[in-house]
Design a protein that fits this description.
By secondary structure, the protein is of the alpha+beta class. It has 9 helices and 4 strands; from the N terminus they run E-H-E-H-E-E-H-H-H-H-H-H-H. The protein folds into 2 domains: 72 residues, Glutaredoxin (3-Layer(aba) Sandwich), CATH 3.40.30.10; 107 residues, Glutathione S-transferase Yfyf (Class Pi), Chain A, domain 2, CATH 1.20.1050. Strand 3 and strand 4 form a beta hairpin. The model has no long low-confidence stretch (mean pLDDT 97). Bound molecules: glutathione (GSH). Glutathione binds next to helix 3.
C-alpha cells in the first residue's frame, strides 16, 4: 500500500480534491470510507473528532483545507511563486463563499429559509464566484486559473463545481470558458482514470 491513508465518509465532499491530488501524482493511497456504524467507534481516535483525516508517516492530519494545502505543497501544485500562491488562495477563498448558502439549502430550518438561500445562490453567489473565476481565467491567458500549469486552484474549482451541480445541474452552461476548463481537467489521464473508477456518490 501507499504512503498515504485518507479517511473520510463515502462521499466526495471535503475529501475529493485531496483524493484527486494523490491520484494525479500516482499515489496508490488507502482510500478509507467509513460507514455510519463504524464512525462512532473511531471518532475518538481522530485528532478533532471529524473527518477527513490524512495519515502520512504515522502523523494524522485533520481539516480538509490543511490536508489539500499540504498535498499541494508536496506535489508542486501551489504555483511557481508568492504571487501565484496568493492568487490561488484568493480563488479558494472565493469558491468557499459558495458553501454558506449551499449549507442553508440543505439544512435550513424551514422551506422559506431554504428557498431564500436558493434564490441568493442563483442570483448572487454563483454569478459572483463564476464571473470572478472567468475573469482570472481570461486574464491568465495560459488556459489555467493561475500560472502556466494546472494548480490547486483548478482542482478546487473542479471539485466545487461538481458539488454545486448537485443542486444546480446546468449552472456551468452559462460560463463556457469555465466549462472548457472543467472538461480539460477531466481529460488529464490520471484524473480521467480516477473519475471512471471512483465510487459513485451523490455528494
Ligand atoms: N472544517 C472541517 C470540517 C470537518 C467536518 O465537519 N466533517 C464532517 C463530515 S463532512 C464530520 O466529520 N462529521 C461527523 C462528526 O462530526 O461526527 C474540515 O474541513 O475538515
Amino acid at each position: 500500500m501507499g504512503k498515504y491513508k485518507l479517511t473520510y465518509f463515502n462521499a466526495r465532499g471535503f475529501a475529493e480534491v485531496s483524493r484527486i491530488i494523490l491520484k494525479l501524482n500516482g499515489q496508490d493511497f488507502e482510500d478509507v470510507r467509513v460507514d455510519s456504524e463504524t464512525w462512532p467507534k473511531m471518532k475518538q481516535d481522530t485528532p478533532q473528532g471529524k473527518l477527513p483525516v490524512l495519515e502520512v508517516d504515522g502523523k494524522k492530519i485533520p481539516q480538509s483545507s490543511a490536508i489539500y494545502r499540504y498535498l499541494a505543497g508536496e506535489f508542486d501544485l501551489y504555483g511557481d511563486d508568492k504571487e501565484d500562491k496568493l492568487k490561488i488562495d484568493i480563488i479558494i477563498a472565493t469558491i468557499e463563499d459558495l458553501w454558506p448558502p449551499m449549507i442553508k439549502i440543505a439544512f435550513g430550518e424551514n422551506e422559506e429559509i431554504k428557498n431564500a438561500a436558493k434564490k441568493k445562490m442563483e442570483e448572487e453567489v454563483i454569478p459572483y464566484v463564476m464571473e470572478y473565476l472567468t475573469k482570472e481565467l481570461k486574464n491568465n491567458t495560459n488556459g489555467w486559473l493561475v500560472g502556466k500549469r494546472m494548480t490547486l486552484a483548478d482542482l478546487i474549482f473542479f471539485t466545487a463545481t461538481d458539488q454545486v451541480a448537485v443542486g444546480f445541474p446546468d449552472f456551468i452552461e452559462k460560463y463556457q470558458e469555465l466549462k472548457t476548463l472543467k472538461n480539460k481537467i477531466s481529460e488529464v489521464p490520471q484524473i480521467k482514470a480516477w473519475l471512471e473508477k471512483r465510487p459513485v456518490t451523490v455528494h
